[in-house]
Automatic annotation (TrEMBL):
Belongs to the class I-like SAM-binding methyltransferase superfamily. Trm1 family. This is tRNA (guanine(26)-N(2))-dimethyltransferase. Pfam families: TRM. Keywords: Methyltransferase, RNA-binding, S-adenosyl-L-methionine, Transferase, tRNA processing, tRNA-binding. It is an enzyme of class 2 (transferase). One of its GO terms (molecular function) is tRNA (guanine(26)-N2)-dimethyltransferase activity.
Length: 164
């Protein structure tokens, strides 16, 4: 860290966060929310897998119909096809353009946003926002230290910094 403030380092999931060591900082770390963040990541990951499976199932159903498969056969073929799918593999092979877009509207330090980007497969884009300028600065610092600068950070006055 280049500024004179003393920082404490916190590791959560795949993310390392830097927070000012002083207790008066307006951007803080809330350890009570760890389980909530873990659960959010788990549930969004599951939703992403299910979404990817629905997309390939829909495409396969369309392919079977174009091949002239009867309605009677279609039901059986679709059941067999769906049973053969590995949802994690389907998601990993998904076109990146079809990935999730996530908004973290009140991101504070950016911890949840960075974890989303790093830990949820199939994420195309994460937008990080906060009304507090100190929170935006802390999120910006943590984005840099976690090598996730391709995550978008927005606040009204950030356009002057070239952040979109």
């Amino acid at each position: 860290m280049t500024d004179a403030v003393n920082y404490k380092t916190i590791v959560e999931g795949s993310t390392t966060m830097y927070f000012p060591a002083d207790q008066e900082s307006t951007v803080f770390y809330n350890p009570v929310q760890v389980q909530n963040r873990d659960l959010s990541i788990l549930m969004i990951s599951l939703a992403a897998e299910r979404r990817a499976v629905r997309q390939v199932v829909k495409a396969q159903r369309k392919a079977f119909r174009s091949e002239g498969v009867s309605n009677k056969e279609l039901s059986t073929k679709m059941e067999e096809y769906e049973a053969s799918l590995d949802s994690a593999r389907v998601l990993s092979e998904q076109d990146p353009a079809l990935g999730l877009t996530i908004l973290d509207a009140l991101a504070a330090s950016g911890l949840r946003s960075i974890r989303y980007w790093k830990e949820i497969p199939g994420t195309k884009h994460v937008t990080i926002n906060d009304l507090d300028a100190a929170a935006v600065e802390r999120a910006w610092t943590n984005l840099k230290h976690n090598n996730v600068m391709d995550v978008v950070l927005e606040q009204n006055d950030t356009r002057d910094r070239g952040i979109h």
